[in-house]
Amino acid sequence: MAQQGPAPRFRRMAGIAAAVLFGLLSAARAEPAFSDPWPAVGDAAGRIVAVPSRSPFVPSEIGPEAPPTSAHVTYYPPVGADAGHRAPAVVLLHGAAGVDDNREPAYARQLAAMGIGAAVVDVFGARRDIATSFTDRVIQITETMALADAYATLAWLKARPEIDGSRVAVWGFSYGAMASIVATNAAIADRFAALYQLGDTRFAAHVAFYGPCIIGFEDPRTTGAPVLMAWGDRDAIMDPARCQASAATLRQGGSRVQTIIYPGAVHQWDGSRPGPRPIGRLLNDCDFEVERDLTVRDGNLGIAMGGSFTRKLILANCVGGEPYLIGRDDAVRAKSDRDVAAFLSAAFGLAQPS
User: Fold this and answer.
1) CA 343, CA 165: separation in Å to the nearest integer?
2) CB 117 within 8 A of CB 74
3) Residue 305: which of 44, 98, 61, 15 has the closest Cα?
4) Neighbours of 8 (CB within 10 A)
5) pLDDT score for 41
6) Which of 29, 153, 283, 336 has a 20 to 30 Å separation from 238 between CA atoms?
7) Within the chain, which residues score under 50 in pLDDT?
8) Over the range 323-335, which residues count as b (16 or more CB within 10 Å of their CB) and which as e?
9) Residue 12's pLDDT is what?
10) Are residues 135 and 124 in contact, defined by beta-carbon separation less than 8 angstroms?
11) Can you tell me the distance from the alpha carbon of 138 to that of 135, in angstroms, rounded to the nearest whole number?
12) In angstroms, rounded to a whole number, what is the distance separating the alpha carbons of residues 2 and 16?
């Protein structure tokens, strides 16, 4: 038998080494994980994409007849993910002032660095033809439109080869937090699923940071996904009794709900504005109910919200004159990072952060 020369032996050894290295790399990137503390934000640029969406004014208008809109989404791909190692993802919804560079994009970069995809949705940016000023945006651009973009983004992420569509959460802040809670409703989720051809896919989890608890449901059935509601005990826009009642309704509807109250925290502890300082106006007298046919009815005036005129009338009647406190607090942010990490790790089936 001919003796094997050095070249074949080298190629065989190189092949074995490559296989071992590939196995090690595959194992290293097999599953994302939250770190404690979360990584430095960095300056990674997201990919700006236009996602086909709609602009229903209220839930009863969810469907193909709603005006078409291109949702403005900035996508941050998860580090280490590919078609063979699909990652979970988070859709982030901004507050009434719009996207805050120190909040939604900052969270998105951190999530992506930990191997979790992130998509920042700019609800207002997609609808500059409807409204541009703060007041006009609040009247003309509704929570239902934010939901339309969120579910459209869920459908877009589901089609990504590196994303596991069954593990996508929605995380909202203030105005966006209200949308995140409304997204739990089974009837509304079913309407959007039909519109965007989602099949059985729904959001795997819902996070709501300091979202006013002013929306209820005649039909409390939820998608069954878990919910995290968090706010500060110095945030006057948050009524603790109403928020605990909302949490109880969500539990009745089929979701596991966790509420966390941060001592000493005011509104937007994770934003860019220093504080505490007064801002805005309270919504505590507002009271909306989504009826079984998805009509939104005002509990004070008894009228249905059917367009910008009735929305303006309803808000003028219930929005108060008192401000609330706002201000960044890095110590609270560190606590909320740990709480979100524990919550999403459980929802996504990841190892709990140590």
Assistant:
1) 18
2) no
3) 61
4) 9
5) 85
6) 153
7) 1-3, 6, 8, 10-11, 13-28
8) ebbbbbbeebbeb
9) 52
10) no
11) 5
12) 23
220-248: per-residue pLDDT in tens?
A: 999 999 999 999 999 999 999 999 999 99
pLDDT at 29: 54
Q: Tell me the Ramachandran region of residue 115: left when phi exceeds 0, alpha when psi lies from -120 to 50, beta otherwise.
A: left
- Phi and psi dihedrals of 325, rounded to 5? -90, 145
Q: In what order do the strands lie in the sheet with 215-217?
A: 215-217, 288-290, 296-298
pLDDT, residue 27, reads 40
Radius of gyration of the chain (CA): 22
Nearest to 341 by CA among 31, 39, 34: 34
Task: Report the alpha-carbon distance of residue 296 to residue 307 in Å, rounded.
Answer: 11
CA distance 245 to 328: 27
The answer to whether the peptide bond before residue 226 is cis (omega within 30 degrees of 0) is: no
- Please tell me the distance from the alpha carbon of residue 119 to that of residue 79, in angstroms, as a whole number: 14
- Dig out the tokens for 223 from the structure: 């998608």
**Predicted model pTM:** 0.91
SS3 track for the chain: CCCCCHHHHHHHHHHHHHHHHHHHHHHHCCCCCCCCCCCCCCCCCCEEEEEEEECCCCHHHCCCCCCEEEEEEEEECCCCCECCECEEEEEEECECCECCCCCHHHHHHHHHHCCCEEEEEECCHHHCCCCCCHHHHHHHCCHHHHHHHHHHHHHHHHCCCCEEEEEEEEEEECHHHHHHHHCCEHHHHHHHHHHCCCCCCCCCEEEEECCCCCEEECCCCECCCCEEEEEECCCCCCCHHHHHHHHHHHHHHCCCEEEEEECCCCECCCCCCCCCEEECCCCCCCCEEECCCCCEEECCCCCECCCHHHHHHHHHHHCCCCCEEECCCHHHHHHHHHHHHHHHHHHHCCCCCC
pLDDT tens by residue, 319-342: 998 999 999 999 999 999 999 999
